[in-house]
Protein backbone atom coordinates (compact mmCIF):
# COMPACT_ATOMS: atom_id res chain seq x y z
CA UNK A 1 0.00 0.00 0.00
CA UNK A 2 1.34 3.43 -0.97
CA UNK A 3 0.24 6.46 1.07
CA UNK A 4 0.52 10.25 0.83
CA UNK A 5 0.22 11.87 4.29
CA UNK A 6 -0.96 15.44 4.60
CA UNK A 7 0.33 17.89 7.19
CA UNK A 8 -2.24 16.95 9.86
CA UNK A 9 -1.28 13.26 9.70
CA UNK A 10 2.44 14.03 9.91
CA UNK A 11 2.04 16.44 12.84
CA UNK A 12 0.02 13.88 14.82
CA UNK A 13 2.56 11.10 14.07
CA UNK A 14 -0.09 9.00 12.36
CA UNK A 15 2.23 7.63 9.63
CA UNK A 16 4.68 5.89 11.98
CA UNK A 17 1.77 4.86 14.22
CA UNK A 18 -0.05 3.28 11.26
CA UNK A 19 3.15 1.47 10.21
CA UNK A 20 3.77 0.14 13.73
CA UNK A 21 0.22 -1.18 14.12
CA UNK A 22 0.48 -3.12 10.90
CA UNK A 23 -3.28 -3.52 10.68
CA UNK A 24 -4.91 -3.39 7.26
CA UNK A 25 -2.76 -3.27 4.15
CA UNK A 26 0.92 -2.87 5.10
CA UNK A 27 2.56 0.39 4.05
CA UNK A 28 5.20 -0.06 1.40
CA UNK A 29 5.96 3.45 0.18
CA UNK A 30 5.33 6.84 1.80
CA UNK A 31 5.25 9.71 -0.69
CA UNK A 32 5.87 12.86 1.37
CA UNK A 33 4.79 15.97 -0.57
CA UNK A 34 7.27 18.85 -0.55
CA UNK A 35 4.21 20.98 0.30
CA UNK A 36 4.02 19.22 3.69
CA UNK A 37 7.70 19.86 4.34
CA UNK A 38 7.32 23.54 3.46
CA UNK A 39 4.31 23.96 5.74
CA UNK A 40 6.07 22.26 8.66
CA UNK A 41 9.18 24.38 8.08
CA UNK A 42 7.05 27.54 8.11
CA UNK A 43 5.35 26.51 11.37
CA UNK A 44 8.67 25.67 13.03
CA UNK A 45 10.15 29.02 11.99
CA UNK A 46 7.17 30.72 13.66
CA UNK A 47 8.03 28.83 16.84
CA UNK A 48 4.93 26.63 16.71
CA UNK A 49 5.23 23.21 18.31
CA UNK A 50 3.16 21.67 15.51
CA UNK A 51 6.02 22.36 13.09
CA UNK A 52 8.59 20.72 15.37
CA UNK A 53 6.28 17.74 15.99
CA UNK A 54 5.91 17.23 12.25
CA UNK A 55 9.65 17.44 11.64
CA UNK A 56 10.20 14.83 14.38
CA UNK A 57 7.80 12.50 12.56
CA UNK A 58 9.73 12.97 9.32
CA UNK A 59 12.94 12.00 11.16
CA UNK A 60 11.26 8.81 12.43
CA UNK A 61 10.21 7.94 8.87
CA UNK A 62 13.74 8.60 7.63
CA UNK A 63 15.11 6.18 10.25
CA UNK A 64 12.70 3.46 9.07
CA UNK A 65 13.69 4.10 5.47
CA UNK A 66 17.38 3.71 6.38
CA UNK A 67 16.54 0.48 8.21
CA UNK A 68 14.76 -0.86 5.13
CA UNK A 69 11.39 -1.12 6.85
CA UNK A 70 9.64 1.05 4.29
CA UNK A 71 10.37 3.38 1.40
CA UNK A 72 10.12 7.16 1.87
CA UNK A 73 10.23 9.50 -1.11
CA UNK A 74 9.88 13.30 -1.20
CA UNK A 75 7.83 14.26 -4.22
CA UNK A 76 5.88 17.11 -5.78
CA UNK A 77 6.67 20.76 -6.11
CA UNK A 78 7.51 23.20 -3.35
CA UNK A 79 4.58 25.61 -2.86
CA UNK A 80 4.97 29.36 -3.26
CA UNK A 81 5.05 31.71 -0.28
CA UNK A 82 1.57 32.90 -1.26
CA UNK A 83 0.27 29.32 -1.13
CA UNK A 84 1.86 28.76 2.27
CA UNK A 85 0.35 32.02 3.53
CA UNK A 86 -3.07 30.91 2.26
CA UNK A 87 -2.79 27.41 3.74
CA UNK A 88 -5.95 28.02 5.82
CA UNK A 89 -7.85 28.59 2.56
CA UNK A 90 -6.93 25.14 1.22
CA UNK A 91 -4.08 25.96 -1.19
CA UNK A 92 -1.62 23.50 0.40
CA UNK A 93 -4.29 20.80 0.73
CA UNK A 94 -4.96 21.06 -3.02
CA UNK A 95 -1.26 20.53 -3.80
CA UNK A 96 -1.19 17.44 -1.54
CA UNK A 97 -4.30 15.96 -3.20
CA UNK A 98 -2.65 16.43 -6.60
CA UNK A 99 0.33 14.38 -5.39
CA UNK A 100 -1.96 11.57 -4.17
CA UNK A 101 -3.74 11.49 -7.52
CA UNK A 102 -0.47 11.57 -9.49
CA UNK A 103 1.02 8.59 -7.61
CA UNK A 104 -2.29 6.71 -7.31
CA UNK A 105 -1.71 6.52 -3.55
CA UNK A 106 -4.05 6.59 -0.55
CA UNK A 107 -4.32 9.98 1.17
CA UNK A 108 -3.77 9.69 4.95
CA UNK A 109 -5.31 12.63 6.80
CA UNK A 110 -6.74 13.78 10.13
CA UNK A 111 -8.54 16.68 8.43
CA UNK A 112 -12.24 15.92 7.86
CA UNK A 113 -12.62 18.60 5.17
CA UNK A 114 -9.55 17.37 3.30
CA UNK A 115 -10.93 13.82 3.43
CA UNK A 116 -14.32 14.79 2.00
CA UNK A 117 -12.84 16.87 -0.80
CA UNK A 118 -10.45 14.04 -1.75
CA UNK A 119 -13.29 11.51 -1.85
CA UNK A 120 -15.31 13.84 -4.05
CA UNK A 121 -12.36 13.95 -6.46
CA UNK A 122 -12.12 10.11 -6.57
CA UNK A 123 -8.97 9.86 -4.46
CA UNK A 124 -8.61 6.92 -2.04
CA UNK A 125 -8.67 8.23 1.54
CA UNK A 126 -7.83 6.83 4.95
CA UNK A 127 -9.19 9.19 7.61
CA UNK A 128 -8.00 9.01 11.21
CA UNK A 129 -9.41 11.19 13.99
CA UNK A 130 -7.22 14.13 14.95
CA UNK A 131 -5.21 13.48 18.08
CA UNK A 132 -6.79 15.06 21.15
CA UNK A 133 -5.31 14.47 24.56
CA UNK A 134 -5.83 15.56 28.10
CA UNK A 135 -3.54 18.44 28.94
CA UNK A 136 -2.35 19.26 32.43
CA UNK A 137 -1.89 22.74 33.82
CA UNK A 138 -0.35 25.45 31.72
CA UNK A 139 3.03 26.73 32.85
CA UNK A 140 1.59 30.19 33.52
CA UNK A 141 -0.91 28.74 36.00
CA UNK A 142 1.88 28.60 38.58
CA UNK A 143 1.40 32.38 38.91
CA UNK A 144 -2.30 32.06 39.76
CA UNK A 145 -3.99 31.79 43.12
CA UNK A 146 -7.67 31.79 44.09
CA UNK A 147 -7.80 35.61 44.17
CA UNK A 148 -6.12 36.21 40.78
CA UNK A 149 -8.49 37.64 38.19
CA UNK A 150 -5.90 38.44 35.52
CA UNK A 151 -2.24 37.71 34.84
CA UNK A 152 -0.03 40.13 32.87
CA UNK A 153 3.28 38.94 31.42
CA UNK A 154 5.62 40.93 29.17
CA UNK A 155 9.22 40.62 28.05
CA UNK A 156 11.50 42.66 30.30
CA UNK A 157 8.86 43.30 32.96
CA UNK A 158 8.24 41.51 36.22
CA UNK A 159 5.05 39.40 36.07
CA UNK A 160 2.00 41.36 37.26
CA UNK A 161 -1.48 40.29 38.37
CA UNK A 162 -4.81 41.76 39.41
CA UNK A 163 -5.77 40.18 42.70
CA UNK A 164 -8.46 40.69 45.28
CA UNK A 165 -12.23 40.63 45.48
CA UNK A 166 -14.67 41.96 42.88
CA UNK A 167 -14.71 45.73 43.20
CA UNK A 168 -11.47 45.70 45.22
CA UNK A 169 -8.81 44.57 42.76
CA UNK A 170 -5.16 45.58 43.04
CA UNK A 171 -2.61 45.52 40.21
CA UNK A 172 0.58 44.22 41.76
CA UNK A 173 3.97 42.75 40.91
CA UNK A 174 4.09 39.04 41.74
CA UNK A 175 7.74 38.41 40.77
CA UNK A 176 10.51 40.95 40.88
CA UNK A 177 12.64 39.19 38.27
CA UNK A 178 11.66 40.40 34.75
CA UNK A 179 10.36 37.83 32.28
CA UNK A 180 12.97 36.96 29.65
CA UNK A 181 12.39 36.61 25.92
CA UNK A 182 13.02 32.86 26.20
CA UNK A 183 10.49 32.50 29.02
CA UNK A 184 7.84 34.43 27.12
CA UNK A 185 8.33 32.28 24.01
CA UNK A 186 8.19 29.10 26.08
CA UNK A 187 4.97 30.19 27.83
CA UNK A 188 3.36 31.22 24.54
CA UNK A 189 4.29 27.89 22.89
CA UNK A 190 2.93 25.96 25.86
CA UNK A 191 -0.40 27.80 25.65
CA UNK A 192 -0.77 27.43 21.89
CA UNK A 193 0.16 23.77 21.72
CA UNK A 194 -1.92 22.84 24.77
CA UNK A 195 -4.86 24.55 23.11
CA UNK A 196 -4.33 22.59 19.91
CA UNK A 197 -4.14 19.27 21.74
CA UNK A 198 -6.87 19.79 24.32
CA UNK A 199 -10.64 19.47 23.75
CA UNK A 200 -11.01 22.31 26.28
CA UNK A 201 -9.22 24.89 24.15
CA UNK A 202 -9.89 26.79 20.94
CA UNK A 203 -8.58 29.84 19.12
CA UNK A 204 -10.99 32.79 19.09
CA UNK A 205 -8.88 35.17 17.01
CA UNK A 206 -5.73 34.58 14.97
CA UNK A 207 -4.32 37.67 13.29
CA UNK A 208 -0.70 38.69 12.57
CA UNK A 209 0.65 39.82 15.92
CA UNK A 210 -2.37 38.82 18.02
CA UNK A 211 -3.86 35.48 18.98
CA UNK A 212 -6.74 35.16 21.46
CA UNK A 213 -7.32 31.74 22.96
CA UNK A 214 -10.02 30.34 25.20
CA UNK A 215 -8.46 27.59 27.33
CA UNK A 216 -10.80 26.07 29.89
CA UNK A 217 -12.02 29.06 31.92
CA UNK A 218 -9.22 31.41 30.84
CA UNK A 219 -9.22 33.95 28.03
CA UNK A 220 -5.60 34.37 26.95
CA UNK A 221 -4.33 37.06 24.59
CA UNK A 222 -0.85 36.60 23.09
CA UNK A 223 0.55 39.72 21.41
CA UNK A 224 3.76 39.78 19.40
CA UNK A 225 5.77 42.42 17.51
CA UNK A 226 5.19 44.36 15.36
CA UNK A 227 1.62 44.61 16.73
CA UNK A 228 3.07 45.08 20.22
CA UNK A 229 6.46 46.35 21.29
CA UNK A 230 7.31 42.99 22.84
CA UNK A 231 5.78 39.59 23.52
CA UNK A 232 2.89 40.02 25.94
CA UNK A 233 0.56 37.43 27.46
CA UNK A 234 -2.62 38.44 29.27
CA UNK A 235 -4.74 35.75 30.89
CA UNK A 236 -8.13 36.63 32.37
CA UNK A 237 -10.39 34.26 34.27
CA UNK A 238 -13.51 34.47 36.42
CA UNK A 239 -12.81 34.15 40.13
CA UNK A 240 -16.45 34.05 41.23
CA UNK A 241 -19.50 32.26 39.90
CA UNK A 242 -22.69 33.62 41.40
CA UNK A 243 -26.36 32.85 41.62
CA UNK A 244 -29.06 35.46 41.17
CA UNK A 245 -30.00 34.98 44.84
CA UNK A 246 -26.61 36.44 45.77
CA UNK A 247 -27.71 39.91 44.63
CA UNK A 248 -29.91 42.62 46.11
CA UNK A 249 -33.43 42.87 44.67
CA UNK A 250 -33.04 39.28 43.43
CA UNK A 251 -36.75 38.50 43.70
CA UNK A 252 -37.79 41.69 41.92
CA UNK A 253 -35.27 41.20 39.12
CA UNK A 254 -36.22 37.56 38.77
CA UNK A 255 -39.89 38.50 38.37
CA UNK A 256 -39.07 41.28 35.93
CA UNK A 257 -37.05 39.23 33.45
CA UNK A 258 -39.25 36.15 33.79
CA UNK A 259 -42.65 37.79 33.27
CA UNK A 260 -41.84 38.72 29.67
CA UNK A 261 -38.91 39.14 27.31
CA UNK A 262 -37.20 42.42 28.05
CA UNK A 263 -34.35 44.62 26.94
CA UNK A 264 -31.79 44.93 29.75
CA UNK A 265 -28.47 46.75 29.93
CA UNK A 266 -26.06 45.57 32.62
CA UNK A 267 -23.60 48.40 33.17
CA UNK A 268 -20.61 49.14 35.35
CA UNK A 269 -16.93 49.96 35.35
CA UNK A 270 -14.32 47.39 34.20
CA UNK A 271 -13.91 44.69 36.85
CA UNK A 272 -17.13 45.62 38.65
CA UNK A 273 -18.72 42.20 38.05
CA UNK A 274 -20.98 42.87 35.05
CA UNK A 275 -20.25 39.60 33.24
CA UNK A 276 -20.56 37.65 36.48
CA UNK A 277 -24.05 39.09 37.00
CA UNK A 278 -24.92 38.40 33.34
CA UNK A 279 -23.91 34.78 33.86
CA UNK A 280 -26.19 34.56 36.91
CA UNK A 281 -29.12 36.00 34.90
CA UNK A 282 -28.42 33.56 32.05
CA UNK A 283 -28.38 30.55 34.37
CA UNK A 284 -31.64 31.65 36.03
CA UNK A 285 -33.40 32.13 32.68
CA UNK A 286 -32.18 28.77 31.39
CA UNK A 287 -33.50 27.10 34.56
CA UNK A 288 -36.84 28.92 34.06
CA UNK A 289 -37.63 27.16 30.78
CA UNK A 290 -36.28 29.92 28.53
CA UNK A 291 -34.11 29.12 25.51
CA UNK A 292 -30.96 31.17 26.15
CA UNK A 293 -28.03 31.86 23.80
CA UNK A 294 -25.06 34.18 24.08
CA UNK A 295 -23.24 36.46 21.64
CA UNK A 296 -19.65 36.98 22.75
CA UNK A 297 -16.31 37.91 21.27
CA UNK A 298 -14.41 36.30 22.79
CA UNK A 299 -16.55 33.65 24.44
CA UNK A 300 -15.75 33.70 28.16
CA UNK A 301 -19.05 33.66 30.07
CA UNK A 302 -19.08 30.70 32.45
CA UNK A 303 -22.47 29.18 31.65
CA UNK A 304 -23.85 25.65 31.60
CA UNK A 305 -23.78 23.37 28.55
CA UNK A 306 -27.50 24.01 27.93
CA UNK A 307 -26.64 27.59 26.91
CA UNK A 308 -24.97 27.74 23.48
CA UNK A 309 -22.31 30.43 23.16
CA UNK A 310 -21.96 32.05 19.74
CA UNK A 311 -19.25 34.38 18.47
CA UNK A 312 -18.85 36.40 15.27
CA UNK A 313 -20.03 34.66 12.12
CA UNK A 314 -18.01 35.63 9.07
CA UNK A 315 -16.37 38.39 11.11
CA UNK A 316 -19.66 40.09 11.97
CA UNK A 317 -22.06 39.99 14.90
CA UNK A 318 -24.78 41.08 12.47
CA UNK A 319 -24.41 37.71 10.74
CA UNK A 320 -24.60 36.01 14.13
CA UNK A 321 -27.81 37.91 14.88
CA UNK A 322 -29.33 36.86 11.55
CA UNK A 323 -28.61 33.23 12.40
CA UNK A 324 -30.01 33.58 15.90
CA UNK A 325 -33.23 35.04 14.52
CA UNK A 326 -33.66 31.74 12.68
CA UNK A 327 -33.06 29.85 15.94
CA UNK A 328 -35.48 32.17 17.82
CA UNK A 329 -34.07 32.10 21.37
CA UNK A 330 -36.20 33.55 24.15
CA UNK A 331 -33.24 35.51 25.51
CA UNK A 332 -29.80 36.39 24.17
CA UNK A 333 -26.93 37.60 26.36
CA UNK A 334 -24.81 40.10 24.35
CA UNK A 335 -21.37 40.47 25.94
CA UNK A 336 -20.15 43.17 25.28
CA UNK A 337 -22.08 45.97 23.54
CA UNK A 338 -19.53 48.65 22.61
CA UNK A 339 -19.53 49.85 19.02
CA UNK A 340 -22.35 51.46 17.08
CA UNK A 341 -22.81 48.23 15.12
CA UNK A 342 -23.25 46.35 18.42
CA UNK A 343 -25.98 48.73 19.59
CA UNK A 344 -27.76 48.48 16.26
CA UNK A 345 -27.58 44.68 16.29
CA UNK A 346 -28.85 44.66 19.87
CA UNK A 347 -31.74 46.96 18.89
CA UNK A 348 -32.64 44.95 15.77
CA UNK A 349 -32.88 41.72 17.74
CA UNK A 350 -34.88 43.34 20.53
CA UNK A 351 -37.35 44.89 18.07
CA UNK A 352 -37.69 41.46 16.48
CA UNK A 353 -39.09 40.22 19.79
CA UNK A 354 -36.01 38.52 21.28
CA UNK A 355 -35.30 39.23 24.94
CA UNK A 356 -31.90 40.92 25.05
CA UNK A 357 -29.46 41.38 27.91
CA UNK A 358 -26.44 43.51 27.00
CA UNK A 359 -23.24 44.13 28.97
CA UNK A 360 -22.00 47.73 28.66
CA UNK A 361 -19.07 49.64 30.13
CA UNK A 362 -20.33 52.76 31.94
CA UNK A 363 -19.35 54.73 35.03
CA UNK A 364 -23.00 55.64 35.84
CA UNK A 365 -26.25 53.84 35.19
CA UNK A 366 -27.61 56.72 33.08
CA UNK A 367 -24.47 56.68 30.91
CA UNK A 368 -25.35 53.21 29.64
CA UNK A 369 -28.70 54.47 28.38
CA UNK A 370 -27.20 57.63 26.89
CA UNK A 371 -25.01 55.48 24.66
CA UNK A 372 -28.18 54.58 22.77
CA UNK A 373 -28.87 58.25 22.00
CA UNK A 374 -28.02 58.95 18.37
CA UNK A 375 -27.86 55.23 17.64
CA UNK A 376 -31.53 54.49 18.21
CA UNK A 377 -34.44 56.82 17.52
CA UNK A 378 -35.31 58.56 20.79
CA UNK A 379 -38.89 57.33 20.96
CA UNK A 380 -37.75 53.73 20.36
CA UNK A 381 -35.30 53.58 23.28
CA UNK A 382 -37.82 52.16 25.83
CA UNK A 383 -38.79 49.46 23.32
CA UNK A 384 -35.15 48.47 22.99
CA UNK A 385 -34.12 48.87 26.65
CA UNK A 386 -36.67 48.93 29.45
CA UNK A 387 -34.32 48.04 32.33
CA UNK A 388 -30.86 49.28 33.32
CA UNK A 389 -28.91 47.47 36.03
CA UNK A 390 -25.77 49.15 37.37
CA UNK A 391 -23.20 46.90 39.07
CA UNK A 392 -20.69 48.28 41.54
CA UNK A 393 -18.18 46.24 43.55
CA UNK A 394 -19.93 43.04 42.53
CA UNK A 395 -23.37 44.09 43.77
CA UNK A 396 -26.50 45.57 42.22
CA UNK A 397 -26.21 49.28 42.95
CA UNK A 398 -28.98 50.83 40.86
CA UNK A 399 -31.86 49.56 38.76
CA UNK A 400 -33.80 51.86 36.43
CA UNK A 401 -37.13 51.34 34.73
CA UNK A 402 -37.29 53.02 31.30
CA UNK A 403 -40.61 54.15 29.82
CA UNK A 404 -41.86 56.79 27.39
CA UNK A 405 -44.63 59.33 27.88
CA UNK A 406 -46.06 62.19 25.85
CA UNK A 407 -45.94 65.00 28.38
CA UNK A 408 -44.61 68.43 29.19
CA UNK A 409 -41.03 67.87 30.38
CA UNK A 410 -40.29 68.47 34.03
CA UNK A 411 -39.95 72.21 34.69
CA UNK A 412 -41.75 73.38 31.57
CA UNK A 413 -45.26 74.75 32.00
CA UNK A 414 -47.07 75.41 28.75
CA UNK A 415 -49.19 72.54 27.47
CA UNK A 416 -48.20 73.14 23.86
CA UNK A 417 -44.64 72.12 24.83
CA UNK A 418 -45.76 68.50 25.33
CA UNK A 419 -43.54 66.01 23.50
CA UNK A 420 -42.36 62.38 23.77
CA UNK A 421 -40.25 62.09 26.92
CA UNK A 422 -38.16 59.07 27.94
CA UNK A 423 -38.65 58.74 31.69
CA UNK A 424 -36.01 56.88 33.71
CA UNK A 425 -37.38 55.90 37.13
CA UNK A 426 -35.96 54.20 40.20
CA UNK A 427 -37.05 50.58 39.93
CA UNK A 428 -37.80 50.12 43.64
CA UNK A 429 -39.67 53.36 44.29
CA UNK A 430 -40.99 54.26 40.86
CA UNK A 431 -39.73 57.83 41.40
CA UNK A 432 -38.49 59.51 38.18
CA UNK A 433 -34.74 60.17 38.23
CA UNK A 434 -34.05 61.46 34.67
CA UNK A 435 -35.85 62.63 31.58
CA UNK A 436 -34.55 62.50 28.03
CA UNK A 437 -36.25 64.62 25.36
CA UNK A 438 -35.61 67.00 22.50
CA UNK A 439 -35.21 70.68 23.37
CA UNK A 440 -34.72 73.20 20.58
CA UNK A 441 -33.78 70.38 18.16
CA UNK A 442 -31.22 68.87 20.55
CA UNK A 443 -31.54 65.68 22.61
CA UNK A 444 -30.93 66.44 26.29
CA UNK A 445 -30.76 64.33 29.44
CA UNK A 446 -32.03 66.15 32.52
CA UNK A 447 -31.53 64.82 36.09
CA UNK A 448 -34.51 65.38 38.38
CA UNK A 449 -32.44 65.09 41.59
CA UNK A 450 -29.06 66.36 42.69
CA UNK A 451 -26.28 64.15 44.00
CA UNK A 452 -27.71 64.31 47.53
CA UNK A 453 -31.17 63.21 46.38
CA UNK A 454 -32.76 66.65 46.57
CA UNK A 455 -34.59 68.31 43.66
CA UNK A 456 -32.20 69.15 40.83
CA UNK A 457 -32.40 72.17 38.60
CA UNK A 458 -35.40 71.79 36.33
CA UNK A 459 -35.24 71.45 32.58
CA UNK A 460 -35.70 75.21 32.26
CA UNK A 461 -33.07 75.95 34.90
CA UNK A 462 -30.52 73.79 33.11
CA UNK A 463 -31.36 74.53 29.51
CA UNK A 464 -33.62 77.50 29.02
CA UNK A 465 -31.12 80.06 30.30
CA UNK A 466 -28.58 79.02 27.67
CA UNK A 467 -31.22 78.90 24.92
CA UNK A 468 -32.65 82.32 25.85
CA UNK A 469 -29.17 83.78 25.89
CA UNK A 470 -28.41 82.36 22.47
CA UNK A 471 -31.67 83.68 20.98
CA UNK A 472 -31.19 87.18 22.40
CA UNK A 473 -27.53 87.32 21.37
CA UNK A 474 -28.56 86.60 17.80
CA UNK A 475 -30.27 90.06 17.66
CA UNK A 476 -28.47 92.07 20.36
CA UNK A 477 -25.20 93.84 19.63
CA UNK A 478 -23.88 94.17 23.17
CA UNK A 479 -23.86 92.27 26.41
CA UNK A 480 -26.66 89.96 27.48
CA UNK A 481 -27.55 88.61 30.92
CA UNK A 482 -30.39 86.22 31.73
CA UNK A 483 -32.09 85.59 35.05
CA UNK A 484 -34.80 83.01 35.54
CA UNK A 485 -37.84 84.03 37.57
CA UNK A 486 -39.87 80.92 38.35
CA UNK A 487 -40.71 77.97 36.15
CA UNK A 488 -41.52 79.76 32.89
CA UNK A 489 -40.48 83.41 33.26
CA UNK A 490 -37.14 85.10 32.64
CA UNK A 491 -35.71 88.61 32.73
CA UNK A 492 -33.20 89.55 30.05
CA UNK A 493 -30.85 92.49 30.59
CA UNK A 494 -29.35 94.17 27.49
CA UNK A 495 -27.62 97.43 26.59
CA UNK A 496 -30.03 100.35 26.30
CA UNK A 497 -29.31 100.68 22.59
CA UNK A 498 -30.33 97.04 22.03
CA UNK A 499 -33.81 97.27 23.56
CA UNK A 500 -35.52 98.10 20.26
CA UNK A 501 -33.62 95.39 18.38
CA UNK A 502 -34.54 92.72 20.90
CA UNK A 503 -38.20 93.67 21.29
CA UNK A 504 -38.77 94.35 17.60
CA UNK A 505 -41.55 96.30 15.94
CA UNK A 506 -44.71 96.03 18.01
CA UNK A 507 -42.97 93.42 20.20
CA UNK A 508 -42.98 90.92 17.33
CA UNK A 509 -39.39 89.71 17.67
CA UNK A 510 -39.49 88.97 21.39
CA UNK A 511 -42.91 87.35 20.97
CA UNK A 512 -41.48 84.98 18.36
CA UNK A 513 -38.68 84.05 20.76
CA UNK A 514 -41.17 83.50 23.58
CA UNK A 515 -43.29 81.26 21.38
CA UNK A 516 -40.30 79.19 20.30
CA UNK A 517 -39.06 78.65 23.84
CA UNK A 518 -42.38 78.62 25.71
CA UNK A 519 -41.06 81.15 28.24
CA UNK A 520 -42.28 84.65 29.12
CA UNK A 521 -39.38 87.06 28.71
CA UNK A 522 -39.16 90.53 30.26
CA UNK A 523 -36.53 92.68 28.49
CA UNK A 524 -34.79 95.36 30.56
CA UNK A 525 -31.63 97.49 30.40
CA UNK A 526 -28.62 96.94 32.61
CA UNK A 527 -29.50 100.19 34.37
CA UNK A 528 -32.52 98.36 35.75
CA UNK A 529 -30.44 95.46 37.00
CA UNK A 530 -30.29 95.50 40.82
CA UNK A 531 -26.79 96.40 41.93
CA UNK A 532 -25.46 96.78 38.37
CA UNK A 533 -24.63 99.53 35.98
CA UNK A 534 -24.48 99.25 32.23
CA UNK A 535 -20.91 98.34 31.33
CA UNK A 536 -20.11 97.67 35.02
CA UNK A 537 -18.31 94.62 36.38
CA UNK A 538 -20.03 91.30 35.74
CA UNK A 539 -22.52 92.92 33.41
CA UNK A 540 -23.55 89.84 31.46
CA UNK A 541 -22.36 86.61 29.97
CA UNK A 542 -21.90 87.83 26.42
CA UNK A 543 -19.58 90.26 24.70
CA UNK A 544 -15.92 90.14 23.79
CA UNK A 545 -13.95 90.97 26.93
CA UNK A 546 -16.83 90.46 29.32
CA UNK A 547 -17.00 86.70 28.73
CA UNK A 548 -15.72 84.04 31.05
CA UNK A 549 -12.47 82.21 30.54
CA UNK A 550 -12.55 79.51 27.91
CA UNK A 551 -13.22 76.03 29.27
CA UNK A 552 -13.60 72.57 27.80
CA UNK A 553 -11.58 70.95 25.01
CA UNK A 554 -10.23 73.31 22.36
CA UNK A 555 -11.32 72.26 18.86
CA UNK A 556 -10.82 73.46 15.30
CA UNK A 557 -14.12 73.52 13.37
CA UNK A 558 -14.16 72.78 9.65
CA UNK A 559 -16.41 74.81 7.35
CA UNK A 560 -17.72 72.95 4.32
CA UNK A 561 -20.16 74.03 1.64
CA UNK A 562 -23.10 72.72 3.67
CA UNK A 563 -22.01 72.39 7.28
CA UNK A 564 -19.84 73.72 10.05
CA UNK A 565 -18.28 70.56 11.53
CA UNK A 566 -17.05 70.62 15.13
CA UNK A 567 -14.85 67.56 15.94
CA UNK A 568 -15.13 65.93 19.38
CA UNK A 569 -13.84 62.35 19.06
CA UNK A 570 -14.36 59.86 21.83
CA UNK A 571 -17.64 61.40 23.01
CA UNK A 572 -20.20 59.83 20.66
CA UNK A 573 -23.75 60.14 21.98
CA UNK A 574 -22.83 62.67 24.70
CA UNK A 575 -24.65 65.96 25.16
CA UNK A 576 -22.14 68.82 25.08
CA UNK A 577 -21.93 72.61 25.13
CA UNK A 578 -20.14 74.48 22.35
CA UNK A 579 -18.57 77.77 23.42
CA UNK A 580 -16.66 80.62 21.79
CA UNK A 581 -14.16 82.43 23.96
CA UNK A 582 -15.78 80.79 26.97
CA UNK A 583 -19.26 82.05 26.05
CA UNK A 584 -22.08 79.58 25.48
CA UNK A 585 -23.20 79.17 21.86
CA UNK A 586 -25.40 76.06 21.80
CA UNK A 587 -26.01 72.56 23.15
CA UNK A 588 -25.67 69.53 20.88
CA UNK A 589 -25.36 65.75 20.84
CA UNK A 590 -22.11 64.35 19.40
CA UNK A 591 -22.74 62.04 16.43
CA UNK A 592 -21.47 58.46 16.31
CA UNK A 593 -18.70 59.74 14.04
CA UNK A 594 -17.37 61.91 16.89
CA UNK A 595 -18.47 65.29 15.52
CA UNK A 596 -21.19 67.92 15.62
CA UNK A 597 -22.62 69.11 12.30
CA UNK A 598 -24.39 72.47 12.10
CA UNK A 599 -26.19 73.32 8.86
CA UNK A 600 -24.87 76.52 7.30
CA UNK A 601 -27.43 79.29 7.08
CA UNK A 602 -28.91 78.54 10.50
CA UNK A 603 -28.64 81.06 13.32
CA UNK A 604 -26.33 78.76 15.25
CA UNK A 605 -24.02 78.30 12.26
CA UNK A 606 -23.85 82.04 11.67
CA UNK A 607 -22.85 82.66 15.29
CA UNK A 608 -20.24 79.92 15.09
CA UNK A 609 -18.80 81.19 11.80
CA UNK A 610 -18.70 84.73 13.15
CA UNK A 611 -16.78 83.55 16.22
CA UNK A 612 -14.34 81.65 13.98
CA UNK A 613 -13.85 84.72 11.76
CA UNK A 614 -13.07 86.82 14.83
CA UNK A 615 -10.46 84.33 15.95
CA UNK A 616 -12.30 83.36 19.14
CA UNK A 617 -11.29 80.09 20.73
CA UNK A 618 -13.88 77.36 20.15
CA UNK A 619 -14.24 74.82 22.95
CA UNK A 620 -16.51 71.87 23.61
CA UNK A 621 -17.39 70.62 27.08
CA UNK A 622 -19.62 67.73 28.20
CA UNK A 623 -22.66 68.85 30.17
From TrEMBL:
Domain AAA+ ATPase per the UniProt entry, residue ranges: 260-486
Entry annotated with the keyword RNA-binding: yes
Stretches assigned to the PIN domain: 1-116
Annotated region described as Disordered, given as residue ranges: 1-26, 527-554
Keyword RNA-binding appears in the UniProt entry: yes
Keywords of the record: RNA-binding
InterPro entries found in the cross-reference section: AAA+_ATPase (IPR003593), KH_sf_prok-type (IPR009019), Nucleic_acid_metab_PIN/TRAM (IPR052041), P-loop_NTPase (IPR027417), PIN-like_dom_sf (IPR029060), PIN_dom (IPR002716), T2SS/T4SS_dom (IPR001482)
Sequence ranges of Basic and acidic residues compositional bias: 14-24
Record field: compositional bias (Gly residues): 533-549
GO molecular function: RNA binding
Database matches in Pfam families: PIN, T2SSE
NCBIfam families cross-referenced by the UniProt entry: PRK13764.1
Family to which this protein belongs: In the N-terminal section; belongs to the PINc/VapC protein family.
The protein's name in its UniProt record: PINc/VapC family ATPase
The organism's taxonomic lineage, starting at the top: Archaea, Methanobacteriati, Methanobacteriota, Stenosarchaea group, Halobacteria
